[in-house]
């Protein structure tokens, strides 16, 4: 008979083991922080470039005007923080989402029903882990985009039939706390290729408030990029601890409409040497 004996490290061994585990966890936390910083930096650069030299204006229904102008000024000044997802994939099989589905079987964020049709999100999945609060407990934000008719094996080339969404869920009570729809570039640009850095959907913190930002080009036909319109929206979710108190969530809309190509041509034709207006006659 073979006798097995468990070897339990002594005091010094336990201290060394604990130190090794702590060091490994510290490395993992540092790597995650680096990834989050790179993600936020990259998204911030895209936002700055899309805002640069584009005179976005609040839509008529954006109110109060002072709030709209202040938010736009914050974006232009870079006075915000971008939240990086803790998990992201082109598959909905994210670990945190699997755990949510195991606990909350009635919360299906990948499939939705619209006008008796079953729609399925096919790409750009992400999960955001927020700090637990005393009142709400653990809150997870889930992002899904490109909803199409059919099942999850639908072709990525199939045009989206429904906007994507950010959804905040209170894990403890399986409760949806907030939702915000987001558009992808190809929904408003059906005949033009839109690169990954020509549209943006992100979570932002501005002055301690959480926002869902969506910035997409709006294109009709095969138009050059200098003729593209842009739509910018900010959905305010408020402070993280007040998700389930605020019934009306403010939504702010902005747009950029460039001069028409004929107006640009006329403006250039009307400028003489050295940028001075040309004198006719």
Describe this structure as you would to a colleague.
With 281 residues, this protein is an alpha+beta fold. The chain has one domain (30-265). The chain is built from four helices and twelve strands, in the order H-E-H-E-E-H-E-E-E-E-E-E-E-E-E-H. It has helices at 11-51, 65-77, 95-103, 261-269; strands at residues 57-58, 81-83, 87-89, 111-114, 117-129, 139-149, 164-170, 175-182, 200-206, 209-218, 229-238, 251-256. The strands form two sheets. Strands 1-12-11-10-9-2 form a six-stranded antiparallel beta sheet, with helices on one face. Strands 3, 4, 5, 6, 7 and 8 form a six-stranded antiparallel beta sheet that branches. A hairpin with a 2-residue loop joins strand 9 (200-206) and strand 10. It is globular, with a radius of gyration of 24 Å. It starts with 10 loop residues before the first helix and ends in a 12-residue tail after the last helix. The model is unreliable at 2-8, 27-31 and 273-281 (pLDDT under 50).
